[in-house]
Amino acid sequence: MGKAKKSLVWILLGIGCFIIVLFLTLIILPYFLNLDFIKSKINQELRSRYQVSTQIGYISVRFLPRPKIVLKNTTVASDNFKAFFAVVSGYPKVWPILHKKLEIESVVLEKADLRFTLSSKSANSIAPIEVFKKQRKRLKALSFKAHIQLKDSSVEVLKEKTSIFKAHSIKLKADVKDSQIVLETSFSTPFSERIFLKARSSLSSLKGRAEVKNLRLEHLPLVSVNKKINKSQIDLELSFDFKSPTKFNLAFNIASPCFKSQSPNIFLKNAIAQGTLLKEGNNWELKLSRLELETPRIKGQGWLNTDVKKYHIAYDFYAQEIDVTGCRKLLLSVFSQSKAIKNIFKIVKAGKAESFHITQTAVNKKEFESLKTFKLQAEASMAEIDIPKVGLKVHNGQGGITIKEGVLYGENLSGIMEGAEIREAKIAIGIQAPHKDLNIEGAFTAPLKTGLFFLKKFVKNHLVQKELKLISKTEGIVSGKLVITGTYKTADVSLKGALVKGNILYARLPYPAFINRVGFSYNTEKICWQGLKGRFGHSVISNSKGEVDFSNPKIFLSIKEFSGKLIAHELNPWLKKQTFLNSLYQAFELSKGEVKVSSAQFVYKFGQPSSLNYAFHFNLKNSALFLSFLPKKAQIERGEGFVSPHLIKFRNTQGRLGNGTFFLSGEIKTPFTKERQIRLEGAGKITASLQDWIYDLANIPNSLKIKTPARVKTFKLDYHPQYTHLEINVLNPQKISLSFTLDYSPQKCSIRDFYLKENNKKCYLCLDLNWQKDPVLDLNFKGSLSSHTLDAILISNKYLNGFFEGEIKGKIDLAYLGNSELKGNLLVEGLSNLNGFKKLTIEKMSLNAKGQEIDIKKCALSLKETTLEAQGSIKFIEDFLGVNGEIFASVIDLNEISKLFPQRTSEKRPKVKINANIDAQIDLLRYNNVNLKQIEALITIKKSEKIKMEILKGNYCNLDLNGFIRTSKKETEVNISLNGEDLALNSLSQCLFQKDHLFEANYSLNGEFKAKGKKRPIEENSSGYFEFHSKKGRIYKATLLAKIFSLLNVIEVFKGRLPDLTKEGLYYKHFDIKASLQNGILNIESAVIDSPAMKIVGQGTFDISSSKLKMAILVAPLRTIDVVLSKIHILGTILTGKSKTFISVPLEVKGRIQNPQVVLLPPSAIGKGILGLMKRFIGAPIEIFKPLTYNLRNIERRLVC
Fold first, then answer.
1. Locate the YhdP central domain: which residues (predicted)?
2. What is the mean pLDDT of residues 243-269?
3. What radius of gyration, in Å, describes the C-alpha atoms of the chain?
4. Does residue 943 come out as left (phi exceeding 0), alpha (psi in the -120 to 50 range) or beta?
5. Are 560 and 601 in contact (CB under 8 A)?
């Protein structure tokens, strides 16, 4: 046991000694090793593999407690890399060293200072994927296994002497084994508080994870980044799996308390993002499992898939909530070049959204930007929306929002639009062309001021805008529906709404308008209202409906329905100021009273006064009514009425006009024109002024005016410009009752049921004559009518100054007189002013009718100076009247009679044919200035076609007259003979020229003339002759002779030698005239005055139609030339010729016979005819008077008359 213990001790001691020796050997051995081998091996290995040079300041080796190689102050450098290692510790394997091989298990770098210098990028830079492949080859070439540690080191990356990256406090562990590297490192940088990376790299992949604490991007050495970022704070966790640069998988968890940049302008607060990023080839896929931001508020998740080469993109994002306001600002800044983003956020300005879901798939850029496949759904709240084109803004909007196919849709939306509360709204707004649609529809409730704002906003017509600006104050609430349809270019806006209890202050209205309710609508062409109920002053509107149409330049106002109670004295002053109502107020005015309008219509196109149209149904009470055709205002106590430009109606209307009263119903068509038509019926008290108006209105002759005041029991008037129908029952102040029915027109005259009663006297008359329809005169008269009665009825009785009595009944058929029949008798005295024969008076008439024959016992007629009596009979024979009788007349003035028969217009009246044989005895028949006396004639008429008046005996200017006058449709024929012997010439002068005391002589005349023609027989075809002879007479004051003497007295040859016509006159022995008639021209063949003082001869013509005379006259004083020469004192008046030759002066007479002109003629103007006449008349030689030219002119200037 002891030995064993000793052996064990020795063994243990031996082992210990071995260990000690071995320990000492391992301690001493490094000092005897060749360390240059290690240096060269390290240099060789780094140079061959990494093209770097190495400088080792000091190297040491130790074996205990484990083998270790320490390098101090080592520098490694290349073109772009330089590193200084204060201490590099390597732990090689012992056995390979003993065999001169270096196998390092691990390397520890302490206080390393690494610097990388980056050169400018080469123009032919290698693609990242090529670099990756190259590094894989290098990694694959590493045959050693190592564990590397880096402690308390720093790294700096330089680019052109500028530091672009620094890292310090670097800790790193790396294991290299079997072409794999396991790396774990952490370090700090100026832009990050701590960065941790743990990764495993192999020949096929790179996997690991990373953490970045408090990353500040604004401190990144990248100039393009840090200049745009103002402030950032990011915590980042990553896990990655890189297969290659074209295929990797990245999981991330990002938290950023703050991020702020200026370009783009981004501000994020408390952002969290979790998800993965996958890349395979050109395809990228991003999945967000969580995205939360406090500012802008976003909470959601989604995914994104894109192929950058093919520009294929698809994404889907769902958010539980989202801050639209912040997101809008963020997206507009980040995607500032995106038209789609701009177009969306031109509409959406702010708000919040829940259940936000957005998705899009696009195969190209065009499809992506067109938003054709873009879809968005969200529940919006507190939204701010700008509606394009119409310029409206929606505030605090909420509801469902959808965007699809480039159109923004909204369902069941609500919000505030320009002060209006919108609800249940639908929108469809195009975002991208060609979907620029604009459709909005929704109910709204708003203050009346907002409703007015809508109208001002939408109505483009400047006249309507002008009127809307006159509304200065509004109170009330409106509700309704707003509809906008169209596109961005043209949008039609329509409003439908209702107002309950509101006030409007409109500058054109004298009173505020209070509205109980009204429904209204607006579209681009018109504003309509209906169901308007309210109050205006004391006037009440029960219901109104109408529209303002501004589709054309001229605004069209139409009130289609209206009812209510109007206070006239309040409204009238205001209405009269409206210029477009001028035409209405010129014709119609209600100045006071209460007007209840049951229905009304009003139409007017502004700027066109002729377009004014209206129709009112109303009840009046205590009103004052003016109509343009009334003589004065009518005071209406009560009544119903209707008025329009073309019709006025009254029903049960009671009132006063002046002192007259009325109760009437009826209508007046076209009341404000001269062609008005009147239909009235009623009763009342008629006064003078009221009667004047009625007679003037109905065109009733003033001669039929009755005395007033009178009580009208009943009346009925139907007046038309072409006819008048009147039914009336009147009781005048003298208690005379009068009733009749009158129909009157140019073609018809009918008096039916004319009944007059005065005490016990009665009169009944029925007279009906219709020229146009049935030319039959119906007559029925019975009773007695006196002038006393008519004087009591009529203001001025111009019809009867005697009596009218009898009984007669029957008819006269003017179309076929054989059907005519009258029975009865009639006695008339003092009847005048019959229709069409105003001044013709039937002084007395007595007739007895026996069927088809009327026996006129006596008929005395007067017309001014015309008076005649007739008797005879009239028979109705088939188609003509047979008239036989006698006429006895003191005076018949055909001028006055012709005035009774004015030229008729082309009225279709029946032509009554007459066969007549009438013996006429007329003391004086006057026509124009012709007076025929003591006429006895036989007048024959054959069926009104041929009329012959055979003058058996007559007297014209004391000349005996006989012959005939025959007329027919074709022509008129005249054949008259005149003769007289030894008659007073002065009476002829007085008869022809209405001048007395011209002659003192007798004369004889014989002549006749014939004429035939259509209109003017004497001018057309006439012939005849006249011979006038007078002896031993004197001529006084004859105008023509006086002018001849005046001319001769100027010539000294005759001065003082001519007789004085005013005293002794011109005595003549003979005065003869011969003349012939040819077609209205009287040819004076010779006119000779043989006087002791001189001889006068003449020839010429007289135009009967124009009364113009043209004659050449020779005047020869009975004195010889010898006597004349002894009297001449002026050489210029010497006459040539032989002694005992008579001198003759030539003259010309021309002009109207009432005042002719007389002038001297030159000798050359005297014809041979008149000269021969003078020679034959004197029987001696004749010399023509030839004064010098200048003296002749002086004489002419002095004596031409």
1. 840-1158
2. 85
3. 70
4. left
5. yes
Q: What is the mean pLDDT of residues 612-616?
A: 82
Reading the block at residue 1112, the tokens are 């050449």
**The pair of three-digit structure tokens given for residue 343, joined into one six-digit string:** 């177009």
Checking if the pLDDT of 222 tops 60, the result is: yes
Determine the Cα–Cα distance for residues 271 and 256; give it in Å rounded to an integer. 5
Beta-bridge partner residues of 558: 547, 603
Return the amino acid letter for 469. Answer: K
> What is the average per-residue pLDDT within 1041-1046?
80
Where residue 1076 falls among pLDDT bands split at 50, 70, 90?
Answer: very high
> What sign for the dihedral angle of Cα 1119, 1121, 1124, 1130?
positive
How far apart are the C-alpha atoms of 82 and 116, rounded to whole Å?
6
What residue segments make up the domains of the chain, in order of their start? 31-119+137-189, 757-898+908-956, 975-1199
Residue with tokens 């639209």: 324
Enter the tokens of residue 927: 């026509």
In 10 A of CB 58, how many CB atoms? 11
What six digits make up the tokens of 694? 């009625």
Number of C-beta neighbours around residue 777 at 10 A: 18
Short-list 116, 112, 117, 107, CA closest to 45: 107
Burial of 736 (0-12, 13-18, 19+ CB in 10 A): buried
Q: Which two tokens stand for residue 273?
A: 């993002």
| pLDDT 10s digits, 341-366 | 888 888 888 888 888 899 988 888 78
Residue for token pair 């260990």: 19
- My answer on whether omega of the bond before 296 falls inside 30° of 0, hence cis, is yes
pLDDT, tens digit, 9 for 90 and up, residues 670-721 = 877 778 888 888 888 888 877 787 777 667 777 778 888 888 888 888 888 8
SS3 246: coil
**1020, pLDDT greater than 80:** yes
Q: How far is CA 285 from CA 247, 300, 303, 310, 1119, in A?
A: 11, 17, 7, 14, 158
